[in-house]
Amino acid sequence: MTATALKNEMDTFGSKNAMAWQQVCTKADLVAFSGVAAWLETAEGPAQVAIFYLPSPHSKGLSGELFALDHFDPFSNANVIARGIIGDLKGAAVVASPIYKQHFRLEDGQCLEDENVKLRTWKIEFKDDEVWVEGKPH
Fold first, then answer.
1. pTM score above 0.70
2. In what order do the strands lie in the sheet with 103-105?
């Protein structure tokens, strides 16, 4: 099951512009080794992001790894990336699109089947139990 975090008013950290860090959900909203979708305010307008939480069994209480990519799948033209299956290909954490099964690296959004396709990525981090994403793609 995929959860979607939607907010009428975004909580922001720092300035009130679209490049600011925004609280999109809490740690309790995340599903380990799965994705959730959230709205993010950007300079270009609202964007849907897919958030993935990969807790590490070796983290000894640390928060694990968080990744944020575009939720939009350019191959199917649908917002479905958060519903994809998480896996590992050639030592890299990936998400497989649920429609046509292209694999995107979580670290940088690169499609492994087509080097010309890359999803935008976003800086993401925990602030206590809250999940914050910067409103500027990387």
1. yes
2. 85-89, 92-96, 103-105
